[in-house]
Amino acid sequence: MFLLAGLVALGAIALGLLPLPYPLFLVLQRLPIAFPLHMVASGLALILIPIAAFLRHRRTVHRVVGRAAAVCVAVGGTTALLVAVASEATVAARAGLLAQGLVWIALLAAAMMAIRRGTVTRHARLMIAMAAVASGAIWLRLFVYAAVIAGLPSDPVYAAATWACWTLPLGLAVVLTKSRTAKLAPGRLSRVEM
User: Fold this and answer.
1) Count of beta carbons in the 10 Å neighbourhood of residue 194
2) Is there a domain that residue 59 lies in?
3) Is residue 190 part of a domain?
């Protein structure tokens, strides 16, 4: 999964810097600053989120990487809203992308509030949920590639994929983290200063 995230992230960063396919070129024409910023920030977020998770037991480094990831998510998520609206995709697909951006930002804000309050378990669950939403960038590409190979019609498949790519991982993350943390005492496990 880390390899896929890295490849998609590097692709997003490269797309923010290289010539684009025509539908993305149109978005770039409409959003000459926001679109490349979205691609680069979101790509960096895909790289930094798993690194921050891996470093969770090294608090100082975790905080630095986590804050950098949070900035990338905030920038990537905010610009994602603009990109979704400016997209050439169908209304259903744009709605899926818009919802993903909103949920991504909301989960980041909730996770930041949780750690500020010292609720480490809640912070961890929210960050896992946020990472699941971010993984939508990976799953969307896989869904689209599979649809192309299968010869399926692009517009309805893309519209369905823009919703499924992040809602399915988010649902799975919620179910798995809820069952794993149900055994722990709720609330404050330890105070982590930010």
Assistant:
1) 11
2) yes
3) no
Residues 6+ positions from 184 with CB-CB distance below 8 Å: 121
Count up the domains in the chain and report the number: 1
Give the range of the structural domain holding residue 157, as residue numbers without chain letter: 2-181
Q: What is the pLDDT of residues 134-153, one digit of tens each?
A: 999 889 888 888 888 899 99
Whether 186 is in a domain gets the answer no
Asked, for residue 192, whether it belongs to a domain, the answer is no
Other C-beta atoms lying within 10 Å of the C-beta of residue 117? 13
- Integer Cα distance of 138 and 152 in angstroms: 19
CA nearest to 112, candidates 50, 77, 69: 69
Please write the tens of the pLDDT for every residue from 3-53.
Answer: 555 555 555 555 545 555 677 788 889 999 999 899 889 989 998 999 999
Q: What is d(CA 193, CA 21) in angstroms, rounded to the nearest whole number?
A: 45
